[in-house]
Design goal:
By secondary structure, this protein is of the alpha/beta class. It has one domain: 3-Layer(aba) Sandwich (Rossmann fold). It has nine helices and five strands, in the order H-H-E-H-E-H-E-E-H-E-H-H-H-H. The protein has helices at residues 4-19, 36-50, 62-74, 90-98, 133-140, 163-173, 175-180, 185-190, 194-201; strands at residues 55-59, 79-82, 104-108, 123-126, 153-156. A five-stranded parallel sheet has the order 2-3-1-4-5, with helices on both faces. Helix 5 (133-140) links the parallel strand 4 and strand 5 (153-156). The chain starts with a helix and ends with a helix.
């Protein structure tokens, strides 16, 4: 059986293709039309911002956030941005919380897991699923802080018939297990059975 590192690398490629094929193949241009998920995201955020909602958009892949940034800029949609390399976290947070013209905040999933208070947001979009649902919940909890007065909507963008659906199934079937493992893809894989891993790669309608 292949090593866990090789399995994780293969699964990461499959997840990247679900987000945008450019992440897995640099020869494919990072254009909006190349990803139906990205088109769905643009439609969703356009409707949400037009209705006055403030939106947090999370992705595990910083490269995907870069593509989303270009799409938002091309459509004249102002946003704030934060990932693990952002040294000044205060400025984008303050801008999002206080500027009524900025309704979108792009955040890498791990960078947004702790230490953020974003009660101005009332909509959360998880662009890609992560293995451990607890990490997703921590990101969503950025909006559930003292001072939140709005009902919060959460959207998960999942590509049908792909590994993303299987990740959701694993989350549901092994929630208790995922809550106890140390965060990290390789540790999660080691906690799975061989049958679990085979299911991730099997095709289903």
């Amino acid at each position: 059986m292949p090593s866990y590192i090789h399995i994780l690398a293969a699964l990461t490629k499959l997840r990247q293709v679900c987000n945008h094929p450019h992440l897995a193949n640099g020869d494919i241009l990072p254009e909006l039309e190349a990803s139906s998920k990205l088109e769905q995201l643009l439609e969703l955020v356009t409707e949400a911002t037009n209705a006055g909602h403030k939106v947090l958009i999370f992705s595990q892949f910083v490269q995907m956030l870069s593509i989303i940034r270009k799409v938002l800029e091309a459509n004249s949609l102002p946003y704030c941005y934060l990932d693990g390399q952002t040294k000044d976290r205060v400025t984008p947070i303050k801008s999002f919380e206080t500027n009524p013209e900025i309704k979108l905040f792009l955040i890498s999933l791990k960078a947004g897991g702790t230490g953020l208070n974003l009660t101005a947001a009332d909509t959360v979009i998880l662009y890609d699923p992560w293995w451990n649902p607890m990490v997703e919940n921590q990101a969503i909890d950025r909006t559930h802080r003292i001072g939140q007065t709005h009902k919060v909507q959460v959207f998960r963008l999942i590509t049908k018939g792909t590994v993303e659906e299987k990740i959701l199934q694993l989350q549901q079937n092994k929630r208790e297990l995922f809550e106890t493992v140390i965060e990290g893809g390789q540790n999660v894989l080691k906690a799975m059975t061989k049958e679990d891993i085979k299911k991730l790669f099997s095709y289903s309608e």
